[in-house]
Specification:
- Two copies of one chain form a homodimer.
- The first copy, chain A, contains seven helices and eleven strands.
- Chain A is α/β, with parallel strands linked by helices and 246 residues long.
- Chain A has two domains: 69 residues, no CATH class; 156 residues, D-amino Acid Aminotransferase, Chain A, domain 2, CATH 3.20.10.10.
- In chain A, strands 3, 4, 5, 6, 7, 8, 9, 10 and 11 form a nine-stranded mixed sheet that branches. In chain A, strands 1-2 form a two-stranded antiparallel ribbon.
- In chain A, strand 3, helix 4 and strand 4 form a beta-alpha-beta unit.
- In chain A, helix 5 crosses helix 7.
- Chain A is globular.
- At the A-B interface, helix 4 of A face helix 4 of B.
Chain lengths: 246, 246
């Protein structure tokens, strides 16, 4: 965020609401949530805002309360380190041993059941590695622990589908939209690890890092020049545009 | 529990420790945990004790803290309703639409990523239905939302394996042990839904309900007399035996 206004507010709010609906949690009043956000951001130049919605208090056991009274948690963190160096050189990723279970019931949602990502993120300690690529239980490339992935080749770009696992990220959606506007063929696909290994170029997306070219995933190297530069620039501009209240 | 002492303490503690180890969370000091439990149970005749272990405070993002300082939460609830009626008639279950994703990484552990169970438990409201049967994403019968299942036939008993999803329950383990002692063949298996539907008898296990014969799963009916009565009696005795501190 910048200038006391959150970036991609509408997109994040829409995703929050879609997830809440699928999980049977009443969505927060958008005006109230924005007012709470604006109050938290007074005097804040840069930072990371995390909004967590829970189902709220309930009884023992798995049964959700018949009329949930959700809890909203707004937390402000220091800005993430600037990824400028990775933008120039390409980021280094590792390949995680931890895999993702698949369940269409939860696929695409940014829910809080993230044990798989926590176990995957515990696999490396090297600060030069900024994320780890995860495959699903059938060996398909799915995402990073905190990012989405786009393969680049002569025929356009491809990203893993998020209908069995993974998160439908806000910057991922920007890539698909801006690729269409630029006439770059872009599609969601099933991507075996072997296909990732053979890709010429690779980039990742994340709401805090924006889009970043990837130089390496474990032993596999990628050519940052194979990543469409204008697309990344447009997506970055769109991702970090503060969204002033309308 | 009864007489101010928890039931199956050693088994629950062992499972807590196995889960913590697999998730990279330091296990609590067993003497400290027992002392905290005993302090909570002073003057308590019956009730439900839930012990929750978290990884403790950490930073933003999925990276676990390098030296976690886990949090222990001990919560005491009123006793669950007596399942005596179901013991006589057999319990009614439903068949859930929500399925379980499979991941050997998390299989068998009683972890807190239970969104699938919460969504499954939201599928019915009828107080005459005490649990719902869940299949995994490949259609294999796995468990109830809060119980394990045992099919009974002329060749002994069968229960779903818990190496891809499910929870290695404490009462489930008692059934396997006591079946062996009684000479009843018992095995873990892959169980398609069609096999469940054809079973003569069915029972469930849960640490609060003990073992209970099942009369019905959706449209499928089971004969409570096909459930080995002596096995259930032995398991029930063992499951509700207060475990005085040694």
């Amino acid at each position: 965020m910048r200038a006391e206004a959150p970036c991609l507010w509408s997109a994040h709010l829409a995703r929050l609401n879609r997830g809440a609906e699928r999980l049977g949690i009443p969505s927060p009043d958008p005006a109230l949530l924005r007012a709470e956000t604006d109050a938290l951001l007074i005097g804040v130049e840069t930072g990371v805002l995390r909004i967590t919605l829970t189902r709220g208090p309930g009884g023992r056991g798995y049964r959700p309360p018949p009329r949930p009274e959700p809890t909203r948690i707004l937390a402000l963190y220091p800005a993430a380190p600037d990824p400028g160096r990775w933008r120039a050189q390409g980021a280094n990723l590792t390949l995680c041993r931890a895999v993702l279970g698949t369940n269409p019931l939860l696929a695409g949602i940014k829910h809080l059941n993230r044990l798989e990502q926590v176990l995957a993120r515990a696999e490396w300690d090297d600060p030069e590695i900024i994320d780890g690529v995860m495959t699903d239980s059938q060996g398909r490339v799915t995402c990073g622990t905190m990012s989405n992935l786009f393969l680049c080749g002569d025929n356009g770009i491809e990203t893993p589908a998020v209908d069995r696992c993974g998160v439908a990220g806000t910057v991922r959606a920007l890539v698909l939209r801006h690729a269409a506007a630029l006439g770059i063929p872009a599609r969601e696909a099933d991507i075996p690890l072997a296909t990732l290994a053979r890709a010429r170029g690779l980039f990742l997306t994340n709401a805090l890092l924006g889009p970043l070219p990837v130089a390496r995933v474990g032993p596999h190297r990628f050519d940052p020049r194979a990543v469409p530069a204008e697309l990344l620039e447009r997506v970055r501009d769109a991702a970090f545009q503060p969204e002033i209240k309308s």
